[in-house]
Amino acid sequence: MSNYLAIATVTATLKRILHAVVGVDVNGADVRTVRPETLTNDTTFVGVNLFLYQVTPNAALRNADLPTRRADGTVMQRPQAALDLHYLFSFYGDDTKFEPQLVLGSVVRKLHSQPILSRQEIQDTILHTTFPAPTSSNLADSIEMVRFTPIALSLEELSKLWSVFLQTPYTLSVAYQGSVVLIESEDRPVEAPPVLQRKLYVLPFNQPMIDSMTPQMIDSTPGAKLTLQGHNLRADHTLVLFGDIEATPDPGMTNERLVVTVPAGVRAGLQSLQVIQPIYIGIPPARHTSVEFESNIAAFVLRPSINKSGGVYQITATSTNVTLQANPIVGKDQRVVLLLSQVSNDLSTTYTFLAPSRSADSNSITVPIQNVPTGDYLARIRVNDAESALDISAGNYSGPKVHIP
C-alpha cells in the first residue's frame, strides 16, 4: 500500500511522462502543474497544465478495509482510503499555429496508448532530479495501479468549472480520472498470538424437519407426551424447545421419530415447539446458539385441567363464587372462563363466567357467579380458548362436579 505522499506522486509521474512526449511532438511544449488562473496572462507558454480539481472516494473499494478495529478499539488492519483523482488538462499556445490542439492530440495519444502508471515509471520519477517527487513515497509498491480514463464533461459542466470554480477565461481543456489511489494509515495492527490449537469443525447441513405431531391436543397431566414424526430429528445433541423452555427427548429416538414429555411450566392454550440441535465447540466444548440447527415450528393445544387430591376434584362453591385449583399454573395475563353445565348428557344449559384479572400467576382461580340455580353442575375451565375435558363413565359425563348451594 502507499502512504500519504501517493497523490503528489501520481501528479509528478503524470507530469514527467507527458513532458517526454509533448516536447517531442510540439517544439517548445512543456508541462506545468499550477492553478489555471496563473497562466491567464502568460502568452509565451506552450503546453499543457495539469490541475487536480477534485478527489472522490472510489465506489468499488471505499469500504474494502472494513472492519479496521476490534470492539476494544485496537487496530485489526490498517485503514486505507481509496480515492479517484480528477484532473483538468488545459492546453496553451498560439491558436493561429494550432499549438493547443497539437498538444491536446499528443496528450490524448499518450494516455490512450499507455493509460496506466507503471511501477517503473513511478520509481523513476521518485529518483528523477528534474521532476522531483517525494522521495519517501511508496506508491510503486501499491497493489492497485493508477489508470487514467477520460471524463466526458458536458458544456454546462465545463462552463461552471471555468467560470464559477476557476473564475478565469476558458481555454481548450479535457478532464481525466486517475483511479485508484490507495492511501494507507501508519497505524500498526495488534498482532494476535500464534494459534495454539486448530479446531476446524465440518458438519453436514442436516436441518431437522417436523412432518407431524400426535396428539395435537393434549391434557395437562403429569408425564403427558408428544410424538413427533419427521426426518433428521436425531443428532449428538437434540432438544425440544417449548417456547423458551427446553426439554430432552425420551430415550430411543430415531431420525424419523422422537417422543418428548411436556415439561412443567408450559402454559395452557395454543403452544408451539421446535426441535433444536445445539453445537458444542471449543476448548472446553461450549454451546454456540448462533450455529445450532433448528427445525420448523409445530403447534399443539395444551388443555387445562382441574386438580385432584385423593381422587376428589379441588373445586368448591358458594352461591356467589367458585374456587378451583387449575393445572398448569395460570398466568396473570391469561384469559380464564368458567363453564357450569347442568348434569345431563347433552349439557343443554351452560352458564359461562369470566374470571377477574389476577396480580400474579397462580393455580388457584376464584370466579364470581350469579343467578345460578341450586344443584349439581359439571365444571370446565377455558384458558386462552383451550378447554378442560370432562370425565366420561358408562357413556355419560361424570365429572368434575361441583354443587352450587
Automatic annotation (TrEMBL):
Pfam assignment, any one: TIG
Superkingdom, taxonomy of origin: Bacteria
Record-annotated IPT/TIG domain positions: 208-276
Keyword terms: Receptor
Residues covered by the Pvc16 N-terminal domain: 9-196
InterPro entries on file: Ig-like_fold, Ig_E-set, IPT_dom, Pvc16_N
Record SUPFAM superfamilies: E set domains
Official protein name in the record: Cell surface receptor IPT/TIG domain protein
Species annotation: Ktedonobacter racemifer DSM 44963
Lineage of producing organism: Bacteria, Bacillati, Chloroflexota, Ktedonobacteria, Ktedonobacterales
